[in-house]
Design a protein that fits this description.
- The protein is of the alpha+beta class.
- 39% of the residues lie in helices and 19% in strands.
- It has 8 helices and 12 strands.
- A 5-stranded mixed sheet has the order 3-2-1-5-8. Strands 4-10-9-6-7 form a 5-stranded mixed sheet.
- Helix 2 packs antiparallel against helix 3 and helix 5 packs across helix 8.
- Bound molecules: dinuclear copper ion.
- Dinuclear copper ion (CUA) binds next to loops.
């Protein structure tokens, strides 16, 4: 059997590797085209508008190039002059760009500003590299997870405590910038129940890609139950081990950065931990909220999120065990 030259084998391997890399982008975890609410459907509509417009423009250009390649040079020396250049370079953009502008402005006016009716206010503040989430009318402060009720409009007010971030929930809502010293508004008309991934869409430093959050759209009854639980102060530790865990938390100085309602811990530099055990992830969507990951995060945050502002906490095994038990009880 004849063997193929090494250069051919290398070229084929490179082609396979390139296709895997390119096609890998087709299986994104989240996509604006998987719209789960009217805002996202409006944005997906703009996407399709621009896509088909680009297809038409591309087809016109391709036809012009083919015509130019196949056209015989006129024997008389008389051609069409600069007409193709004028059509392709001036007339076509002059027709297309206003259409793009009109389609975009139409969508922006539909989804921007405060939604009509009985909207739920949700304030989101960006920090390196986590999100503070506040419900001013409900008296709830949490982090890295936004619960909203299905079917109800949401009025987002966003800002930043340090640098510019951008909140993007691809399946529910377009991007909105979180700018220090400025409050931006955005609305979400309604959404279907489910768990949606959201990301920071503005480069904000070392851990920009690990600044994620989960948006959980609950049925209205589930949301009310969640809000009622979140309004309560932290559960007092029932066991001796739990009380020891709270002591470890306070002695290690965790309370100077984190708040746990109902305890002396009232720091505001890091996420509120009052109901930490109810959250699905740790370190802003980076790792699942399990005992093992929580232990690793406390002992060595840099191994999970290099550059994270949380310092490593040195603990004896007995202290760590008690602390984990206490934190896991913060329902
Ligand atoms: Cu925050 Cu990128």
């Amino acid at each position: 059997m004849p063997t193929r030259p090494a250069s051919v084998v290398r070229a084929r391997r490179a082609a396979v590797a390139a296709s895997v890399a390119v096609l890998g982008g087709c299986s994104a975890e989240t996509s604006v085209l998987d719209a789960a609410g009217p805002n996202a459907e409006r944005i997906a509509g703009v996407w399709w508008w621009l896509f088909w417009l680009a297809v038409v423009v591309y087809a016109i250009f391709l036809a012009a190039v083919l015509a130019a390649v196949t056209r015989r040079r006129s024997t008389t020396g008389e051609g069409t002059g600069n007409l193709p250049v004028i059509l392709g370079g001036v007339v076509l953009p002059a027709l297309v760009l206003p259409v793009v502008l009109f389609v975009n402005f139409g969508a922006l006016s539909d989804i921007g500003g405060r939604p009509p009716g009985d909207a739920l206010d949700v304030e989101v503040t960006g920090n390196r590299w986590w999100w503070e989430v506040t419900y001013p009318d409900l008296g709830i402060v949490t982090a890295n997870e936004i619960h909203i009720p299905a079917g109800r409009p949401i009025a987002f007010e966003v800002t930043s405590d340090d640098v510019i971030h951008s909140l993007w929930i691809p399946e529910l809502m377009g991007k909105i910038d979180l700018i220090p010293g400025k409050v931006n508004n955005h609305s979400l008309m309604s959404a279907e129940p489910g768990i949606y991934r959201a990301v920071c869409a503005e480069y904000c430093g070392l851990q920009h890609t690990k600044m994620q959050l989960r948006v959980i759209v609950d049925e209205p009854g589930e949301f009310d139950a969640w809000a009622a639980a979140m309004r309560r102060p932290a559960a007092s530790p029932a066991s001796q081990d739990g009380r020891r865990g709270l002591d470890v938390f306070l002695e290690a100085g965790c309370g100077s950065c984190h708040t746990i309602e109902g305890t002396p811990a009232n720091g505001e530099l890091g996420p509120a931990l009052t109901h930490l055990a109810r959250r699905r992830t740790l370190a802003a969507g980076t790792i699942p909220n399990t005992r093992g990951h929580l232990a690793g995060w406390i002992l060595n945050p840099q191994s999970v999120k290099q550059g994270a502002l949380m310092p490593p906490i040195k603990l004896l095994p007995e202290e760590l065990h008690a602390l984990l038990g206490y934190l896991e009880g913060l329902e």
